[in-house]
Specification:
The chain has one domain. Strand 1, helix 1 and strand 2 form a beta-alpha-beta unit. The strands form two sheets. Strands 4-3-2-1-5 form a five-stranded mixed sheet. A two-stranded antiparallel sheet has the order 6-7. It has two helices and seven strands. The two termini are about 20 Å apart. InterPro entries: Transposase_IS66_Orf2.
Length: about 120
């Protein structure tokens, strides 16, 4: 993934999102569901229902970035326990760990096929 500053705010959408959405669709999700400004400079992270894909939306000051990661096997271990239609704030380091396969609840690395 591209380098992120430690000062960037990262928000994980708790509810799954239809990842066929692109720039405008995800922009609407940030506005309507998360009650945030997509152009605030924060990085917004979305998962699909099966949690085998993650899509991010980020405004860098000149335009929007959309990035996606799809797993061939297994699923991401996303934190739960927050009310629906809310977001969970993650440290940029936690996002990097999540994308690398670390279970954020257990603090352990699990191969994708064991989930």
């Amino acid at each position: 993934m591209f380098g992120l500053s430690n000062s960037i705010r990262v928000y994980l959408a708790v509810e799954p999102v239809d990842l066929r959405k692109s720039f405008n669709g995800l922009h609407g999700v940030v506005l309507d569901r998360l009650n945030e400004d997509p152009c605030s400079g924060a990085l917004y992270v979305f998962t699909n229902r099966r949690r085998n894909r993650i899509k991010t939306l980020y405004w860098d000051g000149t335009g929007m970035w959309v990035a996606i990661k799809r797993l061939d096997i297994g699923c991401f271990s996303c934190p739960k326990g927050v009310a629906a239609n809310e977001r969970l704030e993650l440290a940029p380091e936690a996002l990097a760990l999540l994308l690398d396969g670390v279970d954020l609840k257990q603090g352990s690395f699990k191969p994708w096929y064991q989930r």
